[in-house]
Design goal:
Layout (H helix, E strand, L loop, with lengths): L1 E6 L5 E5 L3 E3 L11 E2 L2 E6 L4 E6 L3 H14 L4 H10 L3 H21 L14 E3 L12 E3 L6 E8 L6 E3 L5 E2 L8
Length: 179
């Protein structure tokens, strides 16, 4: 979904597009679902506009994910995937567990701050008015003037999935296609 904004002071326009993104980390063979790169709206000072930016979840979050996977049984989705790929359940569980360990390790060694999904800059400020529950923004201050951006329209668009490395930099999608 895209949300269109207009500044009530200077008339500038901004558009927020929620971009789906995943981390494509070396050494991981994702069997079902890649690791989501969580995001939230931010102002990028390099792009000089409203963008989608990484929301770093941190090592504790991924440690909890790994622990939850270890304690839980396989989902119906996992079981269907195992059946389709003729894998043994123990092999599948080990692969997923190993993948979560790599994700956790990457989170622990990450050096950079969250990045803009558009240009990769770390010069961003999250939009505090973003409602985490409803994933909505009605208005927010315009960083370049004394006005506020006010929502004027919503629209639906299709956006390609972004692939990010462990530091949040874009990777080329074709690098992750398997034969």
């Amino acid at each position: 979904m895209a949300i269109e904004f207009e500044c009530d002071s200077c008339g500038s326009n901004a558009r927020y597009v929620g971009r789906p993104a995943v981390y494509a980390l070396d050494g991981i063979e994702f069997l079902c679902e890649p690791v989501t790169a969580y995001s939230r709206p931010a102002w990028c000072y390099k792009c000089n506009t409203l963008v989608d930016a990484e929301q770093l979840m941190g090592a504790n979050f991924y440690a909890q994910q790994l622990d939850a996977f270890r304690r839980s049984g396989l989902s119906e989705h996992d079981r269907e995937f195992i059946a389709l790929t003729n894998r043994a359940e123990p092999q599948y569980r080990k692969s997923i567990s190993d993948a979560w360990k790599i994700v956790l390790s990457a989170a622990r060694v990450r050096l950079s701050k969250p990045r803009c999904f558009t240009c990769g800059s770390i010069e961003i400020s999250y939009i505090p008015e973003y409602d985490l529950e409803s994933h909505d923004i009605l208005s927010f201050p315009h960083p370049n003037c004394s006005g506020s951006f006010v929502r004027v329209a919503n629209s639906f668009i299709n956006i390609a999935l972004l692939y990010l490395d462990g530091e949040g930099r874009r990777k080329i999608a074709t690098e992750h296609l398997k034969d």
